[in-house]
Specification:
about 70 residues, membrane, signal
Length: about 70
């Protein structure tokens, strides 16, 4: 159990560094293309990536609420 928590903590600490590198690459591609359609696609992708975790957490809390109420 302790090793799992330690491993997950290390993964969460290391992942943001990798994500920043990808953001710089997306920005460079968007600046070089000048296509508004590509920019809209990237923006939609960002919104989807932000929304999914919130929906999952909301569903989890709803499930817990239903179990505690019953």
């Amino acid at each position: 159990m302790r090793y799992t928590v330690l491993l997950l903590t290390l993964v969460f600490l290391l992942v943001p560094g990798l994500a920043e590198a990808q953001c710089a690459m997306c920005r460079a591609v968007l600046e070089s293309e000048g296509s508004e359609a590509a920019a809209k696609g990237i923006n939609n992708g960002i919104v989807y990536l932000m929304a999914i975790p919130y929906l999952l957490v909301a569903g989890l809390f709803f499930f817990i609420y239903k179990k505690m109420k019953a």
